[in-house]
Amino acid sequence: MNNKSTKKGIIGRLLKTIREFYPVMMPFTIVCIVFSAIVSSAPAIFMQNIIAVVEESWQNGDWNAVSSKIFFFVSILVAFYILSLLAGLIYNQLMAIITQGTLKKLREKMFNGMQRLPIKYFDANNHGDIMSHYTNDIDTLRQMISQSFPQLLISAISALTILSIMLYFCLWLTIVVLVGVVLMYFITKKIGGGSAKFFFRQQTELGKVEGFVEEIMNGQKVVKVFCHEKESEADFDRLNEKLFSEAERANKYANILMPILNNIGNVLYVIIAIVGGILLIFDVPNVSISGMAIRLSIIVPFLNMTKHFVGSINQVSNQINSVVMGMAGTERIFNLMDQLPEQDEGYVTLVNAKEVDGVLTECEERTGMWAWKHPHQAEGTVTYTKLRGDVRLFDVDFAYVEGKNVLQNVSIYAKPGQKVAFVGATGAGKTTITNLLNRFYDIADGKIRYDGININKIKKSDLRRSLGIVLQDTNLFTGTVIENIRYGKLDATDEECIAAARLAGADDFITRLPDGYQTYLSGNGANLSQGQRQLLSIARAAVADPPVMILDEATSSIDTRTEAIVQRGMDALMEGRTVFVIAHRLSTVKNSDVIIVLDHGCIIERGDHNDLIAQKGQYYQLYTGAFELE
Question: Vertex 384, ends 383 and 390: CA angle to 5°?
Fold first, then answer.
């Protein structure tokens, strides 16, 4: 019951969505489809009339009026076919617009919704599987909307029209046809229902295969360096085998359906001919709406109507494959669209500010001074706090998985302009702290205050706008070099971007590129070295000019010589800013105001370089090489 309700819900939601997108075009298209289907069933009536005319003329021996009557019926039939052709052309054109327009709007809804999802969604889901929603799932939906839905509607209307004509002509023969149709229904339900779950599994496994292929493509150098080709092939074969197994079972059901239904249709055709002959020979009284006696003019058209009727039922069954796949893809699309967006209850915003007579006020123009706009609903007042970069963590606990704390009782005090460094082995919780500062994740216990304001009260977009971050893994986007730098501040001028590149030490290699700052990058900057990509990432953070900088292994991919160049730019970049530095190279944190040593989510040492060396604790061991970070 739940499964059926789910299927109906998916179809109902999809139809409602299409109707919202095309409130006028969709009903008009349905009218054209219905008209075309009804007209295509009309020949049965004209065939009966033509045979009746011939039969009557043969009995009376009067053939003079036959040709004119037949010509009249054929002329009307041709007119109906022309109207059906026009209706078909119209609805096919409209369906192309509706289908592609619906897919376009759904892709937009998926992508726009995906931009609002929390980081943890992307951490928990395979990126290739997410991509599959935009490719395979959308394609199965396209096939269902453009082909299956119109064909199902045409077949259903044709079947109902022909059934009505059958009842009009002869109840006995109609009952025989309906018995055969009931048998076809139960076979379709049994076989089609069995394939539905396997088609959904097929779409899921297809997403996993695509995710694995994307992962291997991105890590191809690593695969080759470690000679992991055979193992990758084995892993792919295992996933591919699983996909094959689910696809085989799904299509096995679907592929045996049509031959069975076709044969039932052929048998039913023969049975109708036999039953009709018996009724005609024994002159059985006819029961019909028309009141006509059973004659050849009824039996012969009935044979054609039986074939047409069974063909319509077969067409419905033939679409089960596409419908089930389309429903599986649609369900996955709606599942992505239904993911809860990142929650943000913040109401403190970041605004441009200036001081007038010693009082901080909000202004429209960019002054280089920022302030937190803090509305107090209870008092109906608004206060402004100057953005200084004072960041403090009080007794913070955090766990990615409940019950497995990554941070325990962490307290950190970073005053404006201070440089705070985090040191510790992999997994100690260094990057987690920066994730919490950006509110990619929310803390389980404790407080984080930014300029004295609880960061839960600050709107996430404004919070992140005030923080600059340079990650260990660089992400460059398709576009020019200067566009990638401008990503940090979309309204930055070319001069500001170039100044940021010079500050980061990237100007030297950029000017040596074929087109300088207009050099086109693609594939995450595949034509640049890792160090050059990192320099662009630093320049991107520099152009944003934030009061707080987070450098997460920012120089880990840069050689020692380049690091010296970058470090000068970094020093200039960090001037007057609160800076959080994560580094394995202790040489990059020596000049920090505070060095915090983490171990298994706890702070075990705190102080500047000289203090920690004097303590001769873990930092001393790390610095002197007596203890390795890893």
Answer: 125
Which token pair is 160? Answer: 């109902």
Nearest to 577 by CA among 389, 385, 387: 389
State how far the Cα of 80 lies from the Cα of 42, in Å rounded to an integer: 8
Question: What are the pLDDT digits (tens) for 479-515?
Answer: 899 999 998 888 889 999 999 898 888 888 999 999 9
For the chain, the domain total comes to 3
Which residue, chain included where needed, has tokens 């049965």? 44
Check whether residue 515 and residue 584 sit in a common domain. yes
Check: CB of residue 321 under 8 Å from CB of residue 193: no
- Tens-place pLDDT, residues 2-32: 455 466 688 889 999 999 999 999 999 999 9
Are 379 and 483 within one domain?
A: no
Rounded to a whole number of angstroms, the distance between the first and last alpha carbons of the chain is: 54
260 and 356 share a domain?
A: no
Q: What strands lie across the sheet with 381-386, from one edge to the other?
A: 359-362, 349-356, 370-376, 381-386
Residue 612's contacts (CB-CB under 8 Å, 6 or more residues apart) are 595, 597, 605, 619, 620, 623
pLDDT at 325 over 90: no
pLDDT in tens, 190-211: 766 666 677 778 878 887 887 7
Concatenate the DSSP letters of all residues of 593-619 into one string.
SEEEEEETTEEEEEE-HHHHHHHTSHH
Query: Of 589, 626, 621, 592, nearest to 604 (Cα)?
Result: 621
Is 321 within a domain? yes
Domain that holds residue 507: 391-624
Cβ(464)–Cβ(542) under 8 Å? Answer: no
The answer to whether 617 touches 449, Cβ cutoff 8 Å, is: no
Q: HSE, CB side, 13 Å, CA atoms: give it for residue 300.
A: 14
Q: What are the percentages of helix, strand and coil residues in the chain, rounded to 5?
A: 60, 15, 25
Distance of CA 216 to the CA centre of its chain: 21
Q: Residue 188 belongs to a domain with what CATH number?
A: 1.20.1560.10
In a domain, 150, yes or no: yes
Q: Which amino acid is at 562?
A: T
Largest separation between any pair of C-alpha atoms in the chain: 127
Same domain, residue pair 120 and 159: yes
- The confidence score (pLDDT) of residue 63 equals 57
